[in-house]
Fold these 2 entries.
Entry 1:
Amino acid sequence: MSTEHRDNDEQRAFRLKARAHLQANLPPRVRGEAYLDWEDKAFVDRDRVIQRALWDGGLAGIMVPKAYGGQGLDKRFSDIFYEEALPYRLPWHFGNGFNIVLPVLLAHGSEALKTKYVPAMLRGEHIWCQLLSEPSGGSDLAGVLTRAEKRGDDWVLNGSKVWTTGGMEGDFGMCLARTDWTVPKHAGLTMFAVDMKAPGMTIHPLRLVRGNSDFCQEFMDDLVVPGDHVIGDVGGGWTVAGTQLANERAGMARGWFEGVAASVEASEITLSPEYPAFAQELGIAGDSHARQLIGEAFVIDAVARLTVQRVAGGIMRGTLPPTAGAVSSLMAARTDTRRTALLSELAGPAGVVAAAGGNGPNIGFARVTTHRIGGGTTETQLNSVSERYLGLPREADASRDLPFNQLRHNALQGK
Amino acid sequence: MDIDLTEDQRMLQDMTRRFVEDRAPIGRLRKLADGRQLFSAGEWTEAAGQGWIALLVPEAHSGFAESAQGLIDAAIIAEELGRVIYAGPFRSSAVCALAIGEAGSPEQCAAHLPALVSGEATGAWAFAAGSVRGGLAPGGVAVVRDGDGYRLDGTAAFVEDADMAATLLVSAVSPGGVSQFLVPAASAGVTVTPLDPLDSGKRIANVELAGVRISADALLGGFEGAADQFERQLQAAILLQCAETVGVVDRAFEIALDYTQQRLVFGRPVASFQAIKHRLADHVTQLEGMKAVVAHAARAVQAQAPDAAAAVSVAKSHCGRWGTEIVRDCMHLHGGIGMTWDHDIHFYVRRAVSNEALWGPPLAHHERLCQLAGI
């Protein structure tokens, strides 16, 4: 719903400028089109062009300070922009960059890094990714084994990162590496801005259980990073990672794809026509058990959406603590897991066997992995909710206070 | 319901909480449950004096609906009543006042609303067939025209607060549709048979209407024209029940969270074990879901939004399933003490389980959602 009636003169002028520029320069939003498809290079590159078009129209980085290429405006202008942008495709492949990297750079980056990289991102030149998890472990992020050593003015990185969204298309990455092995694990980390195209960086797509490749694994062999590309302090990597993860949770809580209508504003419950259509296709729309499954699917979808909205709104207004974000993540995980079970039961054999030549059967597999593992395993989310939101005692961690080089850890995995 | 309230609504919440903690604490329920005392008419007039019914009734009939947010405010009260497993006839009276205010003639409003507002009269709504899905549609009572008036026949099942009410709101079916009547409980042919509820704070009865003759002026709204009004009342009743369930679960969870942090086992608090923490994390997550969906349903029903029917069924399914799940586990988390009569937690289990089953269990609402979706 448009809030045009609330505009003051300055806001009205901005709205009209945005409306004209978007209409002249942005492709329409196509119903059913994916937000992301990292395997389709042309699709990713089109988002670069779209971001450039926003830059050219003075619509990039609306709340980013002018000193770093943004518009220096407040949230009201951002809301106006998203209202006007509803009919158009937005450059969602920049989601990692804008939701996570940009706030981290603004909070912890040196003046040189901010001046160089923030405007480049806003111009659509750099897609950023996050180099966090490693083959040796994901939940225990502070246990990363990637080694960074000082050589002259530069740093030299060796190790491997994994589960990097869009790694193949990434231009730069924020990479968490260990710079001191003689101190406890959280104290020996440093965050680097690394060039994904630099010599020594090898990127492999990871083939997932369904055959798709949204994630990559990277190998760093004597990758040279300039000394001034440390984000935050040397040894302060865990603080930077904290900001990073907080922004990731906040982004997921408010809706990762900014500008999609299903944000905090949209409130009506809609009963997805997909479930009834699927049951009709299977010829079981009148079956009382099938109707129970469909009814429950309606319920869990609506509850999950309303919960995410409530939590996001509560955090924004300060009526819920920021730690409530973990509740949204856990709700999403439980809902997706349950929905897959409901749909599998509804589909029966049709969920595991399909006609040859199509996209293959996938119902029994749909999102089975992503929401139990991705964005933090269900177990880490359960810990987050119980420890951070409910304030219950933290898990004992024998590794917390020992020097890292005295800890047991999984082996560093070679190529 | 605990976020996004206006200043006035926060005051209403605080005042209601203080009133029920003072006048209707669990200790009061315990006396009712032990059978030593009955819920008294005086207790209800004192409660109604808080304005609980008045906020649904227009000023012309002794209420102040014009300065309240009707069912949103009523849901705030219902949630507070859930926290103490309140025993008074709030929901029944509220729904009857809403029905009469929306569908009644000026004479009916004048005859019934001021007494409902003051608490001198209480409401009861009778309509259901005794089946699992009976709580969602009229079907227990049939009506035929009888001279200038009407005749009612049948049995309305599981009627809340029927034994307290001097006037029953009866929804009855005939081949042409749904009609509603205000029936004096003392009418010839009316038999109220109290049942023995699991929930010690509830009064539930079957209401038999055997050839009950009523005059034309007992008709509320149009003959065979009350289907939409019935749905509206149903939404209000389910909303208020779900809001109550939120209060029940919220308080039971507080009690369990507190206990498991105080209670030591193997030298540590019970709540420090991951097996317990993870359960509590799931519970609070689904409880947030209950609060989110009930807050949405309150706004939707109050605004008569297009998704109001779906919203109450989503709320009822979710609150029904998780209310029971969470509160049963809250009892479990107390270990042996939770199995004793002297601990309060069983009152919460009784209310949660009853609320899941009455006004349509989740499976009845799943079916209703399919119908709303057009299949």
Note: Chain B touches chain A through 47 residues (CB under 8 Å).
Entry 2:
Amino acid sequence: MADPADTPKPQGDNRPALALHVPEPRFRPGDKADFSDIDIGEAGAMPRPDESAAPADMKELAYGLVRVLGEDDRAHGPWDPKLDPDTLRTMLGHMAMVRAFDERMFRGQRQGKTSFYMKCTGEEATSVAASMALASDDMVFPSYRQQGILIARGYSLLEMINQIYSNKGDKLKGRQLPIMYSSREHSFFSISGNLATQTPQAVGWAMASAIKGDSRIAATWVGEGSTAEGDFHSACTFATVYNAPVILNVINNQWAISSFSGFAGAERTTFAARALGYGLAGLRVDGNDALACYAAQSWAANRARANHGPTLIEYFTYRAEGHSTSDDPSGYRSAQEREEWPLGDPVMRLKNHLIAIGEWDEEQQAEMDRSCAEKVKATTKEAEKNGILGHGLHHPFHTMFEDVFEELPWHLGEQARQATRERIAKFGKERPFG
Amino acid sequence: MSADTHSAACAEAPAERRLNMIEAINDALDIMLERDPDVIVMGEDVGYFGGVFRCTAGLQEKHGKTRVFDTPISECGIIGVAVGMGAYGLRPVPEIQFADYIYPGLDQLISEAARLRYRSATEYIAPMTVRSPFGGGIFGGQTHSQSPESIFTHVSGLKTVIPSTPYDAKGLLIAAIEDNDPVIFFEPKRIYNGPFSGYYDKPVEPWKKHPQSVVPKDYYRIELGEARHVTNGEELTVLTYGTMCHVAEAVCREKGVDAEILDLRTLVPLDIEAIEASVRKTGRCLIVHEATRTSGFGAELSALVTERCFYHLEAPVERVTGFDTPYPHSLEWAYFPGPVRIGEAIDAILKD
């Protein structure tokens, strides 16, 4: 190794040496996690501006934290959406179902029934409560951790599991990685594995709706890590330029696989503050507070629907589990972070609120959890009749060549015939191609 | 459509109307905006100004600001919003100002537009036509001259179309806009205003002297995937597209070669039947494109001809292409696959 003294000095060496800052999370495996310096404010403290407010007149909302549910489990302040107890119970039911579903599917992956799964534990409110504030025909462009939207919109669990197993019942014909759902019927866009691509698409859909004088709006979800993609910048620019009726939801769950939010710029400012440079309305919300999530989405939906413009909402939350079944977070972050997270667990907080207002009790909760688990278990068994990944019950293999184009061109036709020959060479003619 | 059908269509036209390629493209966009309320045209400078090459001139005034509008300078955004518009049910026709600028939009084209039908099992489609001027010969330097068609032909799920005349430009563009798959529509900008023989030092010839500049006023389609016989011949097959159709035609005429020149018009899907029939007839094949050589579309054509027509070949397949360098500004005409390079290749193919 060369002696640094021998290295020729760059020009201008009488100037101070520059130093590169490489962000580092505060806690690594084995560290004691301490989040006491995070200012979460008080529930009910943030003002609720009119939905027509100019972004510049509501800057504080991009830096503070909209919270409704307080330490006393009661709803506070102007952002309280004042939902009736039935709606609250429905919301809790969807969130409990998401959690039960995640548990079962995670286990299924570990049992070899599929290749991959992604839980959203700790983030249930950001999809369930937020999507309940939209109309059922508002178009959503989700990322990969918004299974809560499908469950809140009443999508069939069986369809979800068929997709996860890539089996013969999978209406996406086994083409997509597990959890990359699509349901036009539920105004749920096809999920891509490429990050943030859905954000300008949501803006484009919203622009189309405005071009046509429609009344439906669009909403998209993206992780804080992938706000670094150029697509997100394009989405914000197009949204503001055309005043598109769209909501850009940024799920700041602190971690993008092993990269903490600092690698997307969180050491310097909030993600909601990104809105201000574009002239978008910006809201920063307690993502573990289902009522705050609902209220913020509802505010933004009303704003968009009245042609007052797009909103960027940051949901401040925590990814309680690994990125996916292929990830082990114990290799890069402190195991204590989850329990030390200052905003608690979204399901517990909503449950405790319902109990506090006398509309729920622990027994009912236990019954709800049991019933969700049983329903998921029964549906899993039903889905397994259609096959699990790699066990042969998949779509006929010629479907591999379909839908690349609307019509099969000659070169794909030739390749399909080759695939048939290979299949026959391997298994003989008698084996069904199903 | 063959040259014969074109003449027939023109004969039916009440009054002969001659257009250059820019006017023909404008005409196709105007007709489609009129016929289909879901068609929208957008891109950098395409609105009030009418496009840097004037292809969208007058369209905003006629069809309104929500049908024809300017966009931010963001190719990723332009293609990305077009995917969302397609999912809504619109039929967007985005313009990318130069093909050289299309790269920031590649992820949205390759991973999104091209894959959407497949990955959603037809729940969502991306019926967009991305128009973009391409190719050199206008002293555009390395960032206004490239021919990136083989990047797109390599992607499953994209169609790639390149017209070479005003008549074809209109019919192919209408067919592309009506197509339910994403189409890359590259417009050879060197021949926007006139066909080009390859002799850059000779005066520009206007389109009005060319038979294919007769463009009927009404709607018509040229189906994607059908090659056009520029000339019929017995001695040699030339597979080419875009500007190079005209250069190849001029060289063959000068050399007195009885060549069958096929203007492929659509690279994906490719008219393989026309290619095979011609090469089997002539036994010799020259491939000409302006794009760089290595992994260019000529490599695909050469492989296909060799695989399918080997026993009919009397000479090795030859490729004439641009060099594997960036498009140089001052040495543009040394880069361009002009008459000398084409002539040498023809001599080599015909020597035995």
Note: Chain A has twelve helices and seven strands.
